[in-house]
Amino acid sequence: MAARAAEATEIAPEMTSGGLSACPACVAAPAAERLAALQKPEAARLMLSLPTAHCAACIATVETALRQHPGVQSARVNLTLKRVSVEAEPEVTAADLTRVLEGVGYEAHELDPGLLSMTETDRQGRALLMRLGVAFFAMMNIMLLSVAVWSGAEAATRDMFHWISAMIAIPTVIFAGQPFFTSAWSALRVGRLNMDVPISLAIFLATAMSLFETMHSGSKAYFDAAVMLAFFLLLGRYLDHRSRALARSAAGELAALEVPRAVVLEAGAEVLRPIGQVARDDVVLVRPGGRMPVDGVVLTGTSEVDRGLLTGESLPVFAGPGSLVSAGEVNLTGPLTLRVLAAGKDSSLHRMADLVAVAEAARNTYTSLAERAARIYAPAVHLLSLAAFGFWLWRTGGDFRLAVNIAVAVLIITCPCALGLAVPAVVTAASGKLFRKGVLIKNGTALERLAEVDLVIFDKTGTLTLGAPEPANLDGIGAEARSVALALARASSHPLAVALAGRIGGAPAEVTNLREMPGYGVEGRWAGKSVRLGRAGWVGVEAGSETATYLGIEGAPATTFTFSDQIRPGAEAAIAGLKAQGKAIRLVSGDHKAAVAAFAARLGIADWVAEALPAEKAGLVRQMADQGHKVLMVGDGLNDTAALAAAHVSISPAQALDAARVASDIVLLGRDLAAIADAARISTQAIRRMKENFAISAGYNVIAVPLALIGATTPLVSALAMSLSSITVSLNALRLR
User: Fold this and answer.
1) Per-residue pLDDT, 686
2) Can you list the alpha helix ranges (DSSP code H) found in 414-462?
3) Which residue, 14, 214, 301, 659, could crosslink 22 as a Cys pair with Cβ 3.0–4.6 Å?
């Protein structure tokens, strides 16, 4: 109905070349083709899951091991999704790569993308939470028993309490410490260290030494220290897990839009074929309400096509003979037959999914400050503990019990509880505060990246606007034209007709013989005259520059109903708040220049880009990144997903397309955009708290470690000191609230 019939004329010449350059979604193809050109033709992609990978050291170890394997061209770990993408020669199999990873201590198996879901992630979270609960319950009970010992219990009474503590602590440690023990063993059996090795050693030695003391009626046992250690370490691991749990692959969401089968016309008969068996130049039938299974050109039929998933625009466009359509678009009103130009892996939709997957993998190699700091931690802890053991064994003339006691105290006091909580505790506190403001943080490192942003790129339709057309000139239209338009609009499901029918008051005119013409509009008879509501050319007038539908009454001048889209609540406040924080603002839209210029002026945005296609948006983001900018992308449509995934950090509204929400690091739960400025401000505060937590952790080690090395602390005191540092870090994080 809108004044866009000229689009078919403008894109028709592209048809003759057999190309897809005019196709809104095909803009992903050039970038995908350039990517493919950089790879050897015979290269194949293999995907492996890495269920035990959890830190920056895992990324380096896995990628290095795979790249050293003959025939492997590249390897990229996606830590959030716990998987690795490998480009390799055809003779390299998934089984070969699995053996390589097992050789460096990582469980791995070939990934079936069709089976990817959140089920495994949720199961891991429940397992961690269950172990955390068991450790907490055991810790509190052992602490109660320890009170009696601290109060002066002697001999048999003391031994009884120690044995009861042992019966609680030993199964608890075995159960709750399993994540650390499994990871540590995987590393040790291939001759390397990770963060879980000193953790596991400290828990094991504290428990073993306490059991030895109990068996020999010793006065000191530290079961409470062992369980307390497990509890706080599990707490850090669980908080880290929760910060990652909502992340999912946007590429998978895009792939879900692909139609698995198509109706192919062969000698006049309809044959249902898997999309992989549809070839170029086949003729396919797409019925109303169906999604386009291929990229193609319309041979017969007229209809309106919803390209909102691909272009972000809310209004359908005309499709008739000669029009190009893309996989993923929705046929709204009439049957269409298409000549196939590309299908399956060659379709524009599939290529866009590939673009998003590549961008995701590149972005997700980002590691948090805590993970980078932890790289040198494991060897330092072992060296300190070993040095303490050797020194005191020599100093005391062979007092093995004292030397082990001090070595265990050093291991416990240097355990990375505070370091492990430094980032997750802040992320959890900040996420809670932002959630109350209507902002959902999906990725554990999103706050860190958001604090670094200096350029914010906004999409227009559906992001800065509500994406819902509203009649703009009803007051200037006569009652007769309004009543006729109301009767015609009620007979159509077109978005403009629905908007018109919902805003025109009064009673509709008595229009008979109502009939909707797919791709054109609605017509009927009123007072013996022919009446039409629809596209400009169909009604018999020239289209204007505004979005509009036209009413034609036989023998009378046509009436124009113009429409505008409402600015999303909080848009002005968000832009003003971001500018106040010193961030540059840019508007990028697929709409025509006049509309974008006027809209940018309304919001005070001086820097804008119009008529941008999806790959151009992603290309602009990458261009800004190459110039040194840290880009925040805010978008809502399928056409924004590649840009969202390529940006340093990304945000989408809750009303956005699923694929856009999934590609984003942050989701706005409400309609108000003002929360974006709040999120940017809170992210800066969160980074400050993270740095303070690192300082607390470092200061604690500077004071506590020397005390442990000189034998001034016991394992219990060390556990209490470690717990105090963890609590201090957590309380500092809670200041964000």
Assistant:
1) 84
2) 417-436, 446-451
3) 14
